[in-house]
Amino acid sequence: MNRLFATLLFFIFPVSLVFAEYQRANDGMVSSRSDIASEVGKEILEQGGNAIDAAVATGFALAVTYPSAGNLGGGGFMILSLAGGEVISLDFREKAPGAAHRDMYLDADGNVDRNLSRSSRQSSGVPGSVAGLLAALEKYGSMSREQILAPAIRLAAEGFILNSDLAGQFRGQFNNFRNHPASLSKFSKDGVPYSAGERWRQPDLAQTLQNISEQGRDGFYKGSTAELLVKDMMTNKGLITLADLDNYEPVWREPIHGTYRGYDIWSMPAPSSGGVLLVQMLNMLEPYDIGAQGWGSKDTVHQMIEAQRRAYADRAEHLGDPDFVDVPSQILISKDYARQRFANFDPQQSGDSTTITAGSWVNESPDTTHYSVMDGEGNAVSVTTTLNSSYGNKIVVAGAGFLLNNEMDDFSSKPDSPNAYGLIGREANEIQAGKRMLSSMTPTIVTRNNSPVLLTGSPGGSTIINTVLHVVMNVIDHGMSLENAVASPRFHHQWQPDVVRYEIGAFSDDVARELEAMGHAGLSGSRFPIGDANSVMRGENFIEGVSDPRNVGGVSGY
Ligand code: DON
Q1: 383 and 499 share a domain?
Q2: I need a labelling partner for 193 at 20 to 30 A (CA). Which of 38, 256, 477, 500 fits?
Q3: Whether the CB of 386 sits within 6 Å of ligand 1
Q4: Strands 263-267 vs 256-260: parallel, antiparallel or unpaired
Q5: Which of 368, 386, 444, 456 is catalytic?
Q6: Which SS3 state, helix, strand or coil, does residue 476 take?
Q7: Closest CA to 79 of 285, 272, 324
Q8: What per-residue confidence (pLDDT) applies to 67?
Q9: 109 within a domain of the structure (yes/no)
Q10: Domain boundaries, position 266
Q11: Do 316 and 235 lie in a common domain?
């Protein structure tokens, strides 16, 4: 089925009737939001690279072919499951610049200036992606940096043909890009929007990638690229300095590890809240026979919402950068704690989120992106990366061709003041120089007997963690195929605001009425999709990949 038709179908029949892009293969698989980037990863696997080589090549390619979220100027997280059973995580989240401070976004009246925290140069954290991808390649890859970067450089220099998805995004962002000459020049033809079918070249980005290929991290964090970025900052009240860039280091961290019905769940530790909340919710749900209760049944949905409510409440209080605050992760992910936390669960009645200023929903935009890679040797890589908002703060660094993130908005700029995703936070996530802002990104690997079974993750701000929860439970509890596990409609609750957001079809109208009668609010359904989980699963004798049918994407296996 061609993509345009699939996209049209999606709007006519949200979710359920759309075919995910799906492939089955023997030796390796890449699933990402960009078919071109997935193909790059697959070719690296075919050339003898391992999953880490392919993931890094895919990551650099996404910076070229999926610019709203693929990036050099942002950050992300990676979970790696290595042949032999070791699982590790890599944190390449952005950091607050040295000149950042707690009240930097408060105006004279003490209110958060969201324009400053989302749309200015000051919204940018020190980028982590280049250092992170290169660290993964150096430690676990088998191919040279030059080999891995070559496809991205070629795609940027020679260009590629824009599909309607990307051309439509550029058009949609046109007014934002118009405010910044380098952005306008990158994303339009001298001020005229591109159309689908036209070739898009990014010469400045090609040069930056070339610098990285030749000099490694110094090609980005030092020298001409760093100088272009800092010049841009200095002339526009930005904070990032050459020292901030030079000091940036990704961090290898112990992943969050939980168990669920005989499977091992590996996901991202703080400064992401994703792994902790995912395991916490699974722990709260494990005592129930979810499979027997059934997918979309009143009991299943109610239990999941109540688990979500409790886990997200803990997020606001306890989660932050572990290099700056004590994060009680091991307590939060223990089975004992889950039992206590769920002791006040009422099977007949919705819980009661305390009424602190409720945030409002922001419709999800195509920002963050997740990709999953598996090779034939038993290695698997699950990566989520982001600029935060779609196209970050929309500002391209003049001469360097890459977009800046606006990740600083993920800090709690003021206690209980909702960020772009309606999430509130407190001291644990307040701004401090050099600190990493709390994230919801949840790249996850499920293993069994030390072998990767399922790789998943998603964009979607606060909804990310619940999207992963759905995919994992759909596979483990409901025995769904990967295609159905990813395509099935989802719902989301995040404690505050105290409403259930759901995709049409996530449960029946009857169940919605029952939930409403139990006290759940906001049950009017949403035409906005939740998540984009590009996932890979290992079957008996094959590997299967799915790109989430909520968006175009690409799966490449061989
Ligand atoms: O790290 C986070 O949690 C957010 N910056 C992610 C943003 C996101 O997923 C937007 N996607 N739709």
Answers
A1: no
A2: 38
A3: yes
A4: antiparallel
A5: 368
A6: helix
A7: 272
A8: 98
A9: yes
A10: 255-347+442-557
A11: no
User: Does residue 440's CB lie within 6 angstroms of at least one atom of ligand 1?
Assistant: yes
In 443-464, which positions are buried (b, 16+ CB within 10 angstroms) versus exposed (e)?
Answer: bbbbbeeeebbbbbbbbbbbbb
- Which pLDDT belongs to residue 366? 55
Mutate to test the pocket of ligand 1, among 278, 364, 421 (most ligand atoms within 8 A of CB): 421
Distance CA 277, CA 332 (A): 8
Predicted confidence at residue 423, as pLDDT, reads 86
> Nearest to residue 331, comparing CAs of 312, 344, 316, 318?
318
CA gap 166, 20 in Å, rounded: 19
Mutate to test the pocket of ligand 1, among 277, 440, 528 (most ligand atoms within 8 A of CB): 440
Instruction: Provide the CATH number for the domain around residue 497.
Output: 3.60.20.40
Cβ 40 vs Cβ 209: under 8 Å: no
Could you tell me the maximum CA-CA distance found in the chain, to the nearest angstrom?
Answer: 63
Q: Can you say whether the dihedral through the CA atoms of 97, 102, 105, 107 is positive or negative?
A: negative
259 is catalytic: no
| Predicted local confidence at residue 4, as pLDDT | 39
Predicted local confidence at residue 5, as pLDDT: 36
- Quote the CA–CA distance of 211 and 220 in Å, as a whole number: 7
Q: Contact, 460 vs 531, CB < 8 A?
A: yes
pLDDT at position 321, please? 98
Within this chain, do residues 406 and 295 fall inside the same structural domain, yes or no? no
CA distances, 500 to each of 11, 302, 492 (Å): 22, 10, 6
Which of 332, 380, 327 shows the shortest CA–CA distance to 87?
380
Q: Which atom of ligand 1 lies nearest, measured to the CA of 365?
A: 12
- Coil vs helix vs strand at 300: helix
How many domains does the chain fold into?
Answer: 2
Distance CA 102, CA 121 (A): 17
**In the chain, what are the helix, strand and coil shares in percent, each to the nearest 5?**
40, 15, 45
For residue 171, give both structure tokens.
């058009």
- In a shared domain, residues 236 and 107: yes
The answer to the question of residue 11 being in a domain is no
Counting as low any pLDDT under 50, the low residues of the chain are: 1-20, 355-363
Amino acid making up residue 232: D
Are 414 and 306 in the same domain? no
Whether residue 311 sits in one domain with residue 247: no
The residues with which 91 forms a beta bridge, in sequence order, are: 77, 251
Q: Would you say 414 and 106 are in contact if contact means Cβ atoms under 8 Å apart?
A: yes
Give residue 354's pLDDT: 63
| Cα-based distances in Å from 204 to 46, 173, 208, 241 | 29, 20, 6, 21
Q: Is the CB of 410 under 6 A from ligand 1?
A: yes
Residues 185, 87, single domain; the answer is: yes
